[in-house]
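Run log // design_07
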C-alpha cells in the first residue's frame, strides 16, 4: 500500500487538547466522572448520562479490529490511494473510526489486535491510525 496522506484536522475548543496530544504521541479519550463511561468522539458531554463532569484520560492505544474495508476510491487528499478504513474497539471500550496501516491488508481479520501510531500532519498535530500487532 502507498503511504496515506495526512491532512491536518480542524480543531475546535472541545477537541483542541485531543489534537495537541496527538503531536506528542498520546491518544486521549474522555471519561465521565459520574457514570465512568469512556466517551468517543471527543466532547465534554457524556452521551450515557448527560453529565458535563468529564475529564481527559490517556488511552492505552490498543484495541481490536471491529470492522474494516479496503477502499480504493478516495476523495480529496485520498484520491488515487488504497487504504483500509476500520472501526477499532479500544481496550477502554469505545469504537473509533480510523485507518489500519499495513503492507498486507489481505491478511487482516476482524478481531486482530492493533496499536495506535501517529502520522504527523506538519501542522502541530498528528492523525491517529492503527497497525497490526505482530
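design_07 sequence
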Amino acid at each position: 500500500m502507498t503511504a496515506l496522506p495526512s491532512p491536518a484536522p480542524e480543531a475546535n475548543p472541545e477537541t483542541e487538547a485531543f489534537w495537541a496530544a496527538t503531536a506528542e504521541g498520546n491518544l486521549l479519550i474522555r471519561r465521565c466522572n459520574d457514570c465512568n463511561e469512556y466517551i468517543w468522539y471527543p466532547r465534554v458531554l457524556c452521551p450515557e448520562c448527560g453529565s458535563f463532569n468529564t475529564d481527559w484520560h490517556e488511552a492505552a492505544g490498543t484495541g481490536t479490529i471491529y470492522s474494516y474495508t479496503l477502499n480504493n476510491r478516495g476523495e480529496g487528499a485520498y484520491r488515487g490511494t488504497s487504504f483500509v478504513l476500520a472501526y477499532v474497539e479500544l481496550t477502554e471500550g469505545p469504537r473509533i473510526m480510523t485507518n489500519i496501516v499495513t503492507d498486507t491488508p489481505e491478511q487482516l481479520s476482524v478481531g486482530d489486535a492493533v496499536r495506535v501510531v501517529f502520522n504527523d500532519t506538519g501542522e502541530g498535530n498528528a492523525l491517529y491510525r492503527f497497525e497490526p500487532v505482530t
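The beta strands are 28-32, 38-39, 54-58, 62-71, 83-90, 95-100, 113-120, 126-132.
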